[in-house]
DNA sequence: GATGAATGAGGTTTCATTCAT
DNA sequence: AATGAATGAAACCTCATTCAT
């Protein structure tokens, strides 16, 4: 079973995760204290330690929610022919994964220095690298590689840096995806087949 | 002889800034303690407080180094005709500004959550917004606006996320700029003159 | 067996209050550090913060012990006819209240500048004012009003400035009360009934 | 000469005293830092140390201003016959001394705990005791002694606790003196001549 | 499934003071 | 007559964590 302790796992665990993510996202990981989390939940700090071994553990548990879908996406991409259609479908699926875990993602984006030193840092970095490797062609030009990297980062940045663009969220999200798809297409076009 | 008045008038202030930036960059703002900074300089913590009113003040003083050039760039752009050539020159100059303050910029990029809650947050945000406003045409399509924003963020991300691209730094920097210029050109092209 | 629920449920909170009052009284509020309090109790400073939110909070908790009885006294006086007998009974009861919280009162008397800037300052001031207002007749002469004020302050000063008067404490206390009663009687006598 | 350093002593010294007294009086001795004093004078902290050896020294120099007149008063009283007229004249002169050094006096009154531990503490205490000894008759009743003490403290308290009595300052001051004179007269009256 | 009580380490900041210039 | 630079000590306070109950 996926639930280690109890068939019907206490919902406190999930409430802790929710509040923690909210606060981490709002003020950053370091500035969010376990006291704050506990207070907002109206439990004691000690209660948090019943559900999680450490503060970092709360974050790890959150990151796992993002890791799964991305791993699936990578596995899928590896099973496909390495062509433009696959790459673009990757971006589409990545867009879904990101928007399904938007608050966590915002947190990662805004707390890179912290995340880097935590155990989830390596795990995130390796997944982004994996995606990047699959988007770019090994021997393409530097600017083609930059285009692929930019496609990825445009999607990351697009999740929270579009406040000063008018338009409804879905429209913006679509536009971001379109730009990313475009960048990858341009990168691909510049590669001389051979 | 080079310094006319005081032969060896304290360079401690600058040394504090240097070490602070180095450590902030390395471990993040919150995880860098004043004790660490002081120890590495072999002065007491109190000495830091002689030169800076608070920890945040050290950061503010560093940020001012970036703000100046960017403000000049904005002022210049405002004095120019609002056309593609101007926008592209803006990006070239922005690239210079960023690379001249690369460590500080890396710090800001990796500590957004922290910076947001500090006094420099607003100052940075408003400058990035200003640049963004000048790049995009008011009534262009959402995807054109996303392209402009992406141009900016590509430059930001490009400063530290290009480790897994081979090529010498200058070449990579040029490639990033090229991609950014391209994005702005594409955004401009999509606007029907009116 | 005396304490039904927790056989030895922490009396630390009360011990902190006791030690704090002792030290505040001895060296003043500002010169008493939390380290001293903690050391004398053989706990860590952090333990103090488990029981009290701030240093000031310790003092506030102490002041509450005095506020209660005085409030009762004021409430009682308000329910009585405003005549000399009531006023004199007020002074008697006030004397009791003061002597029941003598160390705290001594502290307040000797740390007025400190207390004034703390949250308890206003609370004390308003109670003393209330007492004063009830003692004096609204339109009596200035010297009658001074007599009432002096009655109050004689009781305050009497708590710690009688070392160079011989006699046992109870006798001195009685004498102070007598003088205060007298002063109020004189103030009352000077008012022409109208 | 009374001026140790220079015939025409710098006025900075006096300005330091003035500002220090003002701040000590306003926030208390411990809460007033040398930095504050220096900043308000627009000099550096080091400048204060040119004029005074320590922080306490500033206070001592201020207290000397009060000590002189009071010593004169005590000396005068010792040269007079010990009777009611002398005692009452003492109070009149003491009233003058107090009002001439009102801010310092307010400070002492409100910072007793601090003052007690400083070098000026003993000096003040001994003078107040001396005054008290001269007012009261050695073998009078406890309540007569309390009346004398109260006369003294009424004058002290009267300097700053009369805000809620209407009337112009001089009128209030006169009333306070009147009450004090009365108290001493009553004390005297109760002594059976022996 | 959680609490109450506490700790040890460390944080930022302030202070009175010194001393060469 | 005063400054600039620095120090050592100590202040208040917060944090993640532990553990018996």
From TrEMBL, chains A, B, C, D:
Q: Which UniProt keywords apply?
A: DNA-binding
Residue range(s) of DNA binding per entry: 33-52
Outline the extent of the HTH tetR-type domain.
10-70
Pfam families listed in its UniProt record: TetR_N
Record has DNA-binding as a keyword: yes
Name under which the protein is recorded: TetR/AcrR family transcriptional regulator
């Amino acid at each position: 079973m996926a639930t280690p302790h109890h068939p019907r796992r206490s919902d406190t665990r999930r409430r802790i995760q929710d509040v923690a993510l909210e606060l981490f996202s709002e003020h950053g990981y370091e500035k969010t204290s376990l006291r704050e989390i506990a207070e907002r939940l109206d439990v004691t700090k000690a209660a948090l330690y019943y559900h999680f071994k450490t503060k970092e553990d709360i974050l790890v548990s959150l990151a796992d929610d993002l890791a799964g879908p991305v791993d699936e996406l990578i596995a899928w991409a590896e099973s496909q022919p390495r062509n433009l259609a696959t790459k673009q479908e990757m971006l589409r699926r990545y867009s879904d994964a990101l928007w399904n875990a938007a608050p966590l993602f915002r947190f990662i984006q805004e707390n890179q220095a912290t995340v880097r030193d935590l155990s989830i840092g390596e795990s995130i970095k390796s997944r982004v690298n994996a995606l990047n490797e699959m988007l770019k062609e090994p021997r393409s030009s530097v600017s083609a590689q930059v285009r692929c990297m930019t496609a990825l980062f445009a999607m990351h940045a697009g999740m929270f840096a579009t406040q000063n663009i008018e338009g409804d969220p879905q429209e913006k999200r679509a536009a971001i995806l379109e730009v990313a798809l475009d960048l990858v297409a341009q990168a691909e076009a510049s590669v001389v087949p051979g």
